[in-house]
Protein 1
Amino acid sequence: MGPLRVVVRRGGVVEATHRVHVASTDGLLIGDDIVSFLRSSAKPIQAIPLIEAYDDLDDDEIAIACASHRADPAQLAAARKLLARARATVDDLECGPQEGRPDGRLGHNCSGKHAGFLAVCAAHGWPFAGYRLADHPLQRRLRALLPGDAATDGCGIPTYAQPLTEQAALLLPTPERIADAMRAFPALLGHSDGDDTRLMQALPGWIAKVGAEGLLCARSPEGVGWAFKVEDGSFRGLRPAVGAMLGVADFAVVAVENSRDERVGEVQTDS
């Protein structure tokens, strides 16, 4: 079976088409077993050393370590809590700044993950400097959790490439401590209209995390893993594909609006 076709219609005309490949751990494969990098979808797994190092973490600390955040006040506050736990400063973050974001490196969408990394280093007595590099003890620990060919992610740490069928299993080993924190604070994971946040709110008990270039990985309460990958990297194709496969009615049709907030089209799977 070929990939799902998600089409963008304006005035009845198909203006764009996105091909979405889907895999699940119960053997489903729609499209191809394409290889892509995990990127931010791996953050719940990258948070495992954090919960191993501390038994008194608050849910918001764990959730922000899994987040690709928008630098909202609550998100920045949670990242600061992890920095305080590490007795680190914003200058110790090795994610770099992002243009248009507040508070320098703290405003980077991966700062929660990086603050969590610093907290792990503090717990083990590992140096802060170079924690993002492949030969640092932290990254060696993460490498044991994440197989695949390595490259450098947007925030400077290693990321790993896997086929879609392996990505479907990515979140299966997520410890319940991490899953519970994600479910407690889904809005910290990204933003209120994020595909992962909305999916977790629509389907109680699920966990989900998006990654760059149109990837979303998820796990059902029954322990079935899913991966959705938009071939052209556009997040626009994700939500209708997820809605079609997981039965989320609110995801089936995404409105296209103009600058006057008028509905001028829709994005949906091509039946």
Protein 2
Amino acid sequence: MDANELISEARTAMGQQRYLAPAGNNAFEFYLRVLEIDPGNRVASDALRETFPFAATSAEQAINSRDFNEAQRQIDLLAKADPTNFTLTILRSKLDAQRKTLDKEQQLALDQQKAQQQQAEKAAAEKQLADQLAEQQKLQLAEKQKAALTTEKAGKPASANPAGDVAGTAAAAPATNAAGVTTAAVLTKAYPPRYPPSALRSHQEGWVIVLFAIDAEGRTRDIRVVDSQPRRVFDRAAIEAVDRYRFTPAMKNGVPVSSTQQQRLEFKL
């Protein structure tokens, strides 16, 4: 199109308030093309100057609606028409502020999601440990009952004693006390493992099997990873958690002794 045709198209766009949009079919672009053909064209230059405030309002609306790419395009188009206009500084500041606000909102949403995941993970880990503690307490009770039954049988005379041999009964009692109780170590205090931040960010899940010793005071020792999936991602977190465990130590003939246990720790989101 020649200059006159472009001016006609520009006036039509102005009447329809298409100051800066849509791209390629707006008043500013038509007038700018006129000035490319005829740099001294007074009609185009006057129209751009007079229309600038209305066009700036269009760019501000794009900023407020957070259509940042479109807002940037419109600001760049305004700059071609009047690069020194102070309104451009205001529009650019508003665009930058809105972008920063959106970044903060997105980061806040991400942090909230992360906190919810961590809470869910902690609750799942606590439930798992509680289930393990209940299972171990159940096993301990069964072992105590078994030991008590064994001790009771050991205290009875091998043959009937119709005469009621008190001396024989008394002689059996020391043997019962000497036998004592034999039980396995029982978990009394557990701590959920800390989810590794890198695994949390990449939404990784897995498990670790650890083997460890329990000394006569109920503290864990010599903790090592037997197997894990994925390898080395959750190993340290599992070891650190088991290191804080506390047990009622294993008993042999009524005396606390060291023992070993193996445990699987799950890491799920």
Protein 3
Amino acid sequence: MMNSARRQVQANGITLDVTEAGTGFPVVLCHGFPELAYSWRHQVRALSAAGYRVIAPDQRGYGRSSKPEAIEAYDLDSLAGDVVGLMEALGIEKAVVVGHDWGSPVVSHVALTYPERVQAVAWLSVPHAARAGRPPLDSMREMAGPDHIFYIDYFQAPGIADAELMADVRASLLGFLWSISGDAPREERFQPIKRGRRFVDSFSPPARLPTWLSEDDLRVYVDAFSESGFTGGLNWYRNVNRNWERSERLAGAIVRQPALFVTGSRDPARNPAAIERLPETVADLRGVHILEGCGHWTQQERPDEVNRILIEFLNDVTGGTSQ
């Protein structure tokens, strides 16, 4: 990434591989699955050029960052602790935290658990949601019905999806990225998993790369996951019920910091019900932006629009000041 530096940082008892750029008020960017700090390449450049200090880690389980063996090491308490530990290691008292996909619940957890460390929060693709009234896997199984299995439920068995994805890393990554992007036609979008079928049977690589993903971009992901495997990222999903069990203290909690949500109209993860409830769960909601035709990979598919929205938000919530 142009004008950025990459280094290893000891934080929260693990090592995080971190991309940094710029000076000014700190902004921490938290990626999702199956991604890397590289998924923020367009934002690292634009936000640092706009006068912000940008910090984008490969999160726990990804890339060159630590990959603890225990599944329980990937719960939200640990992941939020990584963000705050990273801030402490870098001498940052307060930051704006931005999350995409799985990064969204991580930054929500940081905002709720360490409110004094968060100036503002932004979610991409996955909106903030209040703690559910029952374990998430119960709802997912009910929604899937008898003939299908929800993908998060499928991921619960250690080693199964891990091996499927590793069998052909390039095809796995490209097929999944394509199938929930805004460019995939209806017949090539991610299909529900039928019982007895594999996760990787739900998508296929496209005939050609989408315009927002170059061969060089794809190679970064393929090389990283060929080395690291997918288990670290999948272990995040294996904690969904544990996260619920451990978060009873947050039932009814409200995000008090200034907040922003950005998603695509073709994003299957956008959760319209949670978006409608954002004014109830977020006290200072500064905007909800739905990008027409955009899919799940918000900041990669629509970098210019996302950068403009984020920079306007950052200027608003920081006063354009530096730390």
Protein 4
Amino acid sequence: MSSTRRSAGGALKGGRWWVVALLIGAATCCLVPAGATAAADDEPAVTLAAPSMQRGAWVAKIVQPTRAVPAPGSSKRGVPVATTVDDGGYFSQELLVLERRTLPDGEGWLRVRLPVRPNDAEGWIPEDAARLRHTDWWVRVRTERRTIEAYEGGRLRLRARAVVGARATPTPRGLFAVLLVAKQRDPHGFLGPWAVHLTSHSDVLENFGGGPGRVAIHGRDGESLQDPLGSARSHGCVRVSNGSVTLLARWLRPGTPVQITG
């Protein structure tokens, strides 16, 4: 696939939620009101647990347009967060929740991972703009071992070999999330039958084949079969067997944590 390399000066430092505008955003299930994490009236409120392999994570489905700001209750304009993402079709916007905080006035805020550059971009959104659900799934990619693992409730469900980024175009590391799960029109094309798009982007390339340089976990077919599983030859995406990516597409939903390490 064709690609455009990023200039060295174009790399953005992490945590600057304000540097990009958002057009962010697959069907979800088991949605509950965001405030449903609170206990009974005579019990203290329950704090949402941070994402972890053992406990899973909370996911916020955006139900009304809002803005991500640098701190809970901030009066800064922030950046827009839409209810859907337009990626050749409309997908609901569901974001990984990193933290929840309640202000003295009782207003709840959620710190979420944003699917934009830089790769550790995050921001706070008002809790009443979202509906929460919990996922037991966790995905871990190990670039040095060139493997991918999927856990459900802390139990290993899948371990498979993968093709990871080449030395010049490495797979970015960090804690990301599934952005959307896209069935491919041609299951025998380069990407195989499914592409699980992530919130991360290449640190080196501006785009892949005309896209925004977003990293994905996808299958293999056509020319991509020339790179054997267990090699480091991709532009940054994680390629797995078609059987493995089909399982991942069945199990994973937007907002599922994806941890990429060395």
